[in-house]
Every structure is written in structure tokens, then in C-alpha cells.
Design goal:
Strand order of the largest sheet: 2-1-3-8-9-10
Strand content: 5-15%
Radius of gyration: 28 Å
Helix content: 40-55%
Structural class: alpha+beta
Largest sheet: 6 strands, antiparallel
């Protein structure tokens, strides 16, 4: 006993010492960061253009069009102190900063930019594949303090100057850190490396130079006009039904374009380098087809439907008949057979059968439904994995697979009228809501489960009143409370959630939009007010700022390819098929809620 007490005390004191050392290492940096950030002047978001930027864009285009000839022009090239011109060519190789000070006029800035371009970049300019960007400095330069892992910096808002007496200052405009996809913790080291590469600093000079920071108001050229940008985003228009239909169509056509001849949908695409990975996820593939079907219900686009059929065939190749249960089928990806893969597979296949009868063999639909029902325990709980080869399954329980299975069973019930599928779905709901997070006679937590939220809404929509509807509003309320609120949040982040120290994640926001919009649809049917509907609209504006459009895709290599896709976050370029799926589905459900509110 004495030995046990001694060991417990040693463990406690060790913990205290480690915690103290951590605080000693991190706290001073944290305090300095707070002081530094408190000195930064407030940022003006999406600043209105007074005509200066439009005029400068026009001048820059004229100078650039004559830069390889001796032809003169008549436009004024007077100095514009405090303004900086950047040219972004759509050429392979990634983003390269080339901002030039306009204090000596547009002509000289354009010449310096042109001289620094590679031949492939010059060729892109000759083919009119480029955009100009302008930054107008609105704060004085001040000493920068990066803080712990760069969290003293506002990514995409802080411009940077590296200054040493014997050389001209080296400046990077605020959007640079996103355009070049530089992690926060590497911003300072990257700046010092770029000063050597781009501005002739020696390694010693780059290491000694003082790092300063500043803020700007920024504009990108859109046609013949200057559009304000924040970070690398243009603002989203007010939410209307017409806007949602347009953006849903763009997102669905991105997915259709990324579906190859064999039906494989691109899993990960990096638009800042125009490269893809070989990754694949069968569950997300099935969920993506569901979103494409939602979009098709609005557009009836033949190209989209063809892509859906190809993607369906690719999914069917991953269905496997159960060797131990006649007539049953499960979805297998490698060695794993996930409940969610079978659930979302049954979901989209049942939806597709609605719009294209006899497009899928009935025995496959029936076999998937039987498999899901057998995966349910007497309590209503679903097993997350199936031991298809009798080699064992992962021990973890998925948080989301059961909701996906319930959705699949409900959609199959809508298609066939089978009561057994409906009973299994409602038993599963009862377990998730009444038992999963219950303890000691109280509810321990509300699960932020967007799939379950959509299943509850669907159950009501098919005319089955249930005891579960209040839980849908509890899920929505939880998610509404987690979001950043205007006007306290930066305007371009309002509606998003701040789960970590990084900027809000658009992929996570998409699933929240699905849940809140599903609640809004039910809210409007039951005349419960506008709370969920208004929250969904604000969240939709946040995610639309990170949807690639013609206006905000100036910094990526292949804007036509990325058009309509949703990237991972306001500062992260990565596109994944489920990012697009969640946001497309969320916008679709919001559209339905808005249409319901007008009835």
C-alpha cells in the first residue's frame, strides 16, 4: 500500500512539474502574442472601391499589352504611393510573389514584374491567362511577433516586410501566405528564404533583417472592374433561391467533370498545384453520388446524370455477396466492410431508382437492406463494421455510420414500402437518441450528428410524426451556438465555427449546414419561426465565400477545373469530394427550407 501511495504521489508531482515547464515555455510567448495583436489596427473588410483600383488595373493592362513593343500609350503613369501591383499568371509551378510598389508609376512596376517572370509565365500572359491584383496599405509597418507556431499572425490579413539598411525592403502582400499555401508556423522562415531567392538578400542579411507587418485593402480585377477581396475570398452575395440553384449546379458539375470514364470520382485535388492524389473512400464516394442526385433533381442535366450512372457502376463493383448469409450484400473497401458504406450506398441507389426505375437490380437493393437490418442489435444499436472474412473487425464504434444506415433504410422504405426497413430505422433512431448518450437518468450530451438530423427530417417529410423531432432542433441548436456570430466575428468568417486555433473549416461547416438546414426545413413546415433558417443562411454565406468562382480563383493554376468546388477552408486550397458533397447537400436542404417558407 505504501508503495502504491508513493507511486501515486510521484506521478502527481511529475505531472505538476511537466505542466509548469509547459507554462514556462508557452506562457511568455502567448502573452507577447496577445500584446502584439492588440496593437494591430482594425481591418476594413471588403472595402468599397472608389475608382482608383479600376483605373490602375486599366493602366497596368495597357502597359503590359505593349511591353514587348516600342509602341507608346497615352495613359498617365503618375506615382501611386502606398499601392502595390501583383500579377498572377495561370501557369504550372505554383504561386510566385511578384508585387511591385507603384510609388514610381505603373510603367516601371509592370516592367519589373515582366522581367521577373519565367518564359512559361510570360506565355500565359501573352495568352491572357493572368489576373492583376492591387493592395493599398492602410496601416503603418510595425515590428512583427509570430508567437507560438505563428499564431501571432492573421493568415491572409498580415502583409510582411523584411528590412535591413543596406537593401531595399522586401515585401509580401497579405494574401501571399494563402496563395502560396504556407503553414502558419513556417511563415517567418519562408519569408527569409524568399528574400534570398527573390530580392538578393544573403543568408546572413535575411537572418538579421527586421520582420515588420502591415495591413492592406485588396482588390482583384473582375472583367473591367476592381472587386474587393479579403484573404483570397470575394464576398458572397445575399442568399436567394436563384443564387443557391446556381451554386448547387456549379458544385455538381465540378463533381461530374471529376468523374472519370470508369466512374471514379477524384478524391483529393490540390488546385494551387493542379495535382491529385490516388486516395479513395467508398463511403464518401456513395455520399457524393447522393449529393449529385440532389443537384440533378433541380437541373435535370444530362451530363450530370451520365456521371451519376458511371459513379454508380464504380460503387457496384465494390459490393460483395455475403458468403454466410444468402442474398445479402455489403460494401467492401479493401479489408473493411463499413456500415456507413452500405448505408449510403442503399441511400443513393434507392434515390436513383426513384428517378430512373429499374436502373439497379432489385436483389442488390434488397440484399443491402437485409445486411443493414442484420447489423442491428436487439437494443437498436448498429455494429459499425462487418466481419465478412471472419478475421475480426475494428473495436471502435463510428459516431456517424448508424445515421447513414438509418437514412439508407428510410429511403429504401420510401421506394419499396417495406415495413421491416422502417422499423429498423426507427429503432436505430430510438437507440441513438434515447440510449447512446444517456447515463444516470440524464442525457450526457447531444450528438452533433448531421446524418441523424437529416434522417429525422426525412421521417417527418414522409408523413410519419415521431418523438424524435425535438432532438433535431437540439442538434441544430448545438451547432448554431458553436458558430461565430456577426458582428463580433470578422465579416468573412461569420457563420463558421472555430473548433481550433486555425481558421474555420469549410468542410465541417458543410455538415453543420446539412443539419441546421434540415432543421430549418422542418421548422418551416411546422411554423416554428425563423431561427434555424436565418442561421443556415448565415452559414451558407460563409461556405459560399470558399466556393471557387470565376472571381475568387485567380490564385490557383487551373480555375476552370476547380470552378464550383468547395475548398477545405478560407486559407486551405485542398478540395475533397466529401467537402463538395456536404456543402452541396447543405445548400440543397436550405433551398428546400426557403421554398417551404414561401408557401
Amino acid at each position: 500500500m505504501k508503495k502504491f501511495i508513493f507511486l501515486r504521489m510521484m506521478g502527481f508531482f511529475t505531472f505538476i512539474i511537466l505542466a509548469g515547464l509547459t507554462l514556462y515555455a508557452v506562457l511568455p510567448s502567448f502573452c507577447k502574442t496577445v500584446v502584439y495583436r492588440s496593437t494591430i489596427k482594425s481591418q476594413t473588410f471588403f472595402q468599397k472601391e472608389d475608382g482608383t483600383a479600376t483605373k490602375l488595373f486599366k493602366s497596368a493592362h495597357l502597359y503590359l499589352s505593349h511591353i514587348e513593343s516600342a509602341e507608346e500609350h497615352a495613359l498617365d503613369s503618375s506615382a501611386q504611393p502606398g499601392w502595390f501591383l501583383s500579377l498572377i499568371p495561370q501557369a504550372p509551378g505554383g504561386y510566385e510573389p511578384n508585387s511591385q510598389d507603384l510609388s514610381q508609376g505603373v510603367r516601371q512596376a509592370c516592367q519589373k514584374i515582366w522581367n521577373g517572370l519565367t518564359e512559361s509565365q510570360k506565355q500565359a500572359v501573352r495568352q491572357n491567362r493572368f489576373r492583376f491584383k492591387l493592395d493599398h496599405m492602410i496601416s503603418e509597418e510595425q515590428a512583427a511577433y509570430p508567437g507560438w507556431k505563428g499564431f501571432g499572425f492573421d493568415k491572409g490579413l498580415n502583409g510582411f516586410t523584411l528590412k535591413i539598411d543596406e537593401l531595399p525592403p522586401f515585401r509580401l502582400m497579405p494574401s501571399w501566405s494563402i496563395e502560396a499555401q504556407v503553414p502558419l508556423k513556417k511563415i517567418e522562415t519562408t519569408i527569409r528564404e524568399l528574400a534570398q531567392k527573390k530580392a538578393g538578400f544573403t543568408a546572413e542579411q535575411a537572418a538579421k533583417a527586421q520582420l515588420l507587418t502591415f495591413r492592406t485593402e485588396s482588390f482583384i480585377e473582375v472583367g473591367e472592374q476592381a472587386q474587393p477581396i479579403m484573404r483570397v475570398n470575394t464576398d458572397a452575395p445575399p442568399i436567394t433561391a436563384a443564387l443557391l440553384k446556381e451554386r448547387i449546379a456549379w458544385a455538381s458539375l465540378y463533381l461530374a467533370r471529376e468523374t472519370d470514364a470508369e466512374g471514379r470520382i477524384t478524391y483529393e485535388y490540390f488546385p494551387h498545384t493542379d495535382q491529385v492524389t490516388d486516395g479513395f473512400n467508398l463511403l464518401r464516394h456513395a455520399g457524393t453520388i447522393h449529393a449529385m442526385i440532389q443537384a440533378w433533381r433541380l437541373s435535370h442535366d444530362a451530363f450530370l446524370l451520365d456521371a451519376i450512372q458511371k459513379a454508380k457502376q464504380f460503387f457496384l463493383q465494390h459490393l460483395q455477396e455475403d458468403a454466410f448469409h444468402d442474398g445479402e450484400y455489403f460494401a467492401r473497401e479493401g479489408s473493411k466492410a463499413k456500415l456507413g458504406g452500405a448505408g449510403l450506398g442503399l441511400y443513393f441507389l434507392s434515390e436513383l431508382e426513384e428517378i430512373q426505375p429499374n436502373s439497379t437490380d432489385a436483389h442488390l437493393l434488397d440484399g443491402l437492406a437485409k445486411h443493414l437490418i442484420r447489423m442491428q442489435q436487439p437494443s437498436g444499436e448498429f455494429l459499425s463494421y462487418y466481419d465478412w472474412n471472419r478475421k475480426g473487425i475494428p473495436k471502435e464504434k463510428s459516431h456517424f455510420y448508424p445515421g447513414e444506415a438509418i437514412l439508407g433504410l428510410l429511403q429504401y422504405h420510401i421506394l419499396t414500402g417495406q415495413k421491416e426497413a422502417l422499423d429498423a430505422a426507427t429503432r436505430g433512431m430510438h437507440y441513438l437518441i434515447k440510449q447512446r448518450w444517456q447515463g444516470y437518468g440524464i442525457r450526457l450530451m447531444v450528438s452533433p450528428d448531421a446524418w441523424l438530423a437529416q434522417a429525422i427530417e426525412l421521417l417527418n417529410r414522409i408523413g410519419i410524426a415521431s418523438e424524435f423531432e425535438e432532438y433535431l432542433f437540439e442538434i441544430a441548436d448545438l451547432m448554431i451556438r458553436q458558430r461565430l456570430h456577426a458582428p463580433s466575428a470578422p465579416p468573412d468568417l461569420a457563420g463558421g465555427g472555430l473548433e481550433t486555433l486555425e481558421l474555420p473549416n469549410v468542410s465541417s461547416a458543410g455538415s453543420k449546414l446539412e443539419a441546421i438546414a434540415a432543421a430549418a426545413w422542418l421548422e418551416q413546415r411546422q411554423h416554428r419561426g425563423q431561427r434555424c433558417l436565418e442561421a443556415a443562411k448565415e452559414l451558407a454565406q460563409f461556405v459560399l465565400r470558399s466556393q471557387f468562382t470565376k472571381e475568387n480563383s485567380w490564385w490557383i493554376v487551373n480555375p476552370e477545373r476547380a470552378l464550383g468546388a468547395f475548398r477545405q477552408g478560407p486559407d486551405v486550397a485542398l478540395i475533397r469530394n466529401d467537402f463538395v458533397q456536404h456543402n452541396l447537400s447543405g445548400l440543397y436542404l436550405l433551398l428546400k427550407a426557403m421554398e417551404q417558407s414561401e408557401k
